[in-house]
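Session log. Operator J.P. requested a structure for one protein chain; no other inputs attached. Running the standard single-chain path with token output.
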Amino acid sequence: MRSVFHGLVMCGVALAAVMVVPAAAMPAPAQAAAKSPAAPGVVVGDIAHAGDGLRITTQGTTLDPTPRPVAGGATMAAVTFAPGAKPGLTLQPSSGHWAWPKGELHMQLQSGMAWPVTLDVEIQSDHGTLHALVGLPPGPPMTLAIPLKPTTPRAFGMQVGPPMPWHDTIVATTVDGSFDPGTARAVHVSMPSPNAPQVVLFGGVSIAAGTPALDAAYTGIVDAYGQYTRTTWPEKIADDAALKKASLQADPASPAVPGFGGVARQGLKATGWFSLVKLKDTWTLVTPDGKAFFSLGVNAVAIDGGMTYVQGRKTMFEGLPPTNGPLGKFYGQGDDRSDNGSQRDNGMNHGQWFDFYRANLQRTYGDAWPQKWAKVTLDRLRGWGFNTLGNWSDPSLFAAHRIAYTQPVIIDGSFASVSTGYDYWGRMPDPFDPKFVAATAVAVAKASKGVREDPWLLGYFADNELAWAGRGPQGRWGLATGALQLGPESPAKQAFVASLRKKYGDAGKLAAAWGVPVASWDLLLAKGFQAPVPAEAHPAIAADYIDFLTLYAETYFRTVATALKKADPHHLFLGGRLAVRTPEVEAACARYCDVVSINAYADLPEHGLDVAAFKRMDKPVMVTEFHFGSADRGPFGNGVAAVASEGERGKAYARFVDAAKASGVIVGAHWFDYADQPVTGRILDGENSHIGLVGITDIPFAGFVKDVTEANRRAAGP
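Structure written below.
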């Protein structure tokens, strides 16, 4: 493909000439001017050569008219981007507009600096503008390829696209906007706020028919073991023999750690169950046998994380096994299509999938892989200093009674719901609906069945990352405004309006307090009521919304807590694994739960949650998700909390866990997750990050787990 890209830019079509004019002298193009004809694979112009047909306008940049030779025999023109807000240059036809085919814009360029620079590219037409932000590394000449249509890695089924450059090409895998190639008007290349002069060399500009560079960027990126094909790293394997050897070398002997773990301390009592106590100014969990316990957990210790859709994108995979072969049993069918935010713009979310993780376990351990995986995994976790199986872990590991575990209560049913506008995993359950109360009882009974008498159970979580708020600076009010937009049949809206009627009595008083024309309560109850946004002129709006959000959250947590206490009075209620949250939600969770659980992705716990607030509430907290990812071990994503390299992940883990233990209010920290996500995205939502303790091959990342083990030993101690 390399020669194709190069040929399109430097093909033998006569080069359009270049005329440079200052921005002030450039006339607006006439709408009725004749089109500049273009055929598939045409040259638009060459910035390094003079002539007629292409106009270049500079804005805060200087174009050196003397062509410079570059590697490969081509010549380019040097453009200096001066310090400023957005220095750039604009390419336009000398008259009219271009009529391009559907395809890709290809531009030859080279960084003149010893460090990467960022380029902001806008491609304008009479009917929309495309926008792409790309990084240009130092090195030899590159071809920048920008599809003339919107695209994102989500369209290919993953959240993060392949790293660039690839060979000598930089593909803009994320392009926003809309565009009509038949009425192309301008190409604008700028640099976001350089603080010193930056030099970039530019050459030929052309249009390639189709999307050859974009298609090539996603072709053959995964090998037979689910590994990224275009780079290498220490844990990458080449064949089955190497896989078995690496796995055996990585498996520690079962550590001689008796019981639940924990540290003996004065003043602690054995209750037979996990419990909580505050010693002086420090909260701590207590094991069933009466020892202080800091919960060091791992989420998703399970075998089902390696599934990725292959239907519709088999060109991405090299060496997929035949469906009728020994690994054919690891194919399956799925359908994750939904209206949830997790599936918005996901172009590969149903059909046939393949499970690379389980296939690799079969290759490593043979037909008895489920039993061998369970033993090896528990050996590893205890050997690495972990003492808890976090959420989403495989129940088959619980019965071994070698490590504490947690249990989710997932409340499903036909009850009413409310949209906050975020709805990543779905709409909020309506806790005012009697059907929700019944569904909660069913969910609690299911979750507690077979475990209510098990002392190894640490406790229960309620649901997961519910959409307690919407997006943006006004997102805090999402539940309140979402409820008011519903019809009179909504239990949440009925509860909200009832609370307002109790407070104001007369609808006119509400209208005056809110500054809205509400002549009767029926108008407020009507479907589609446009709820006002809190404003300084009407402080009652925010006050009333806060009252409702408090009522909503307390009703939810009280309902779950009541059902749990009835079904299982022994074990802890560990909260709702809050991600999107408000002060009202945190306070309600603190009131009805034993522990407030928060998924906090930040460099330190206090940057992901308000540690001081929980000290004031005198309530223990558990960080139930955190991680640090990098992009140098295969999967393209580096997680929610990114670090520069694999070597930094262990240092970041240690800083986080050390700070959590020292906080006095955090009683545990759970890593997300056990294994890396598939390169091409997990079937659930396309996440594809390197955030695991082990890779898709089940081989541990040795340096990282060494750092993790040392940090865990410190945190588990006095």
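Operator note: DSSP finds 15 helices and 33 strands in the chain.
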